[in-house]
Amino acid sequence: MFSADVLSQTIKDKDKEMTILDIGGGYGTLSLYAYDKYKNAKFISSDFSPSMIQVLDKFINELEISNFESKVMDGQNLEQIKDSSIDYTFSTFGLIYFPDILQGMKEMFRVLKPGGKTGIASWCTDAFLPAAFQQTMNALLGNSVSNQAVLSLSDKQVFENKLKEAGFVNIEINRVQHPMEVQEISDLLKHTSINPVYQDCINALPEDKKLIFNETFMNVSNKLLCDQTRNQNGKLELPSYSYIATGQKPL
Ligand SMILES: C[S@@+](CC[C@H](N)C(=O)[O-])C[C@H]1O[C@@H](n2cnc3c(N)ncnc32)[C@H](O)[C@@H]1O
């Protein structure tokens, strides 16, 4: 699971007291995974979508979690967070969608304490889902479609340069993978239609192309997966590669 990788690569002592801010955290994937493992941490999980935060708030109430706050915030303007107040910032597959990624990184830098660290996950180009979305959009709109936001930090050098420009030092970027398993290719739409990228693609299409998105996506996926063999559980494994970057605010 990518959240576990980002956390373990960024935080070396999981028992210390710390404040963790997750940005573009969606329904709280990272914070809900971590809150009972990092027992002395205070979590703030943020997202610019009020509906995501509403769902997260339901989880927080049901699980009766203390030391856990949620905030509706644009990651490019963390106005509710004071300068130099946070020990760790994270963004797993959230920052990659910001229109101004560098501004998002600068905001992470601003709110971190000196010596504080950030952990960010992005998709690599050879991950199955970004490739399938890209090829579907190319098939529907022609090959002129530029890189999707989902691949905005898929170049390791670009990723590192942006972190440097934002002020981070001791930058490390590692490639990790956790294949996504599906029973049948036909199950793919169940998984992808809840992915925010799916909605972004649909929104970018004219009405007549929206109607054939699913069919085109399935044709593309069938081609991409035609040589795929099944794993020992009898499932198809979709390649899922991510870059995990960590960086530090100088002391
Ligand atoms: C693919 S989801 C990832 C959610 C979660 N971090 C995870 O790992 O499952 C991307 C999230 O980024 C959020 N997002 C996109 N642009 C944002 C922005 N400018 N500020 C804050 N959140 C943003 C979306 O609302 C969405 O919840």
From TrEMBL:
<dbReference type="Pfam" id="PF13847">
    <property type="entry name" value="Methyltransf_31"/>
</dbReference>
<protein>
    <recommendedName>
        <fullName>Methyltransferase domain-containing protein</fullName>
    </recommendedName>
</protein>
<dbReference type="InterPro" id="IPR029063">
    <property type="entry name" value="SAM-dependent_MTases_sf"/>
</dbReference>
<dbReference type="InterPro" id="IPR025714">
    <property type="entry name" value="Methyltranfer_dom"/>
</dbReference>
<feature type="domain" description="Methyltransferase">
    <location>
        <begin position="15"/>
        <end position="160"/>
    </location>
</feature>
<dbReference type="GO" id="GO:0008168">
    <property type="term" value="F:methyltransferase activity"/>
</dbReference>
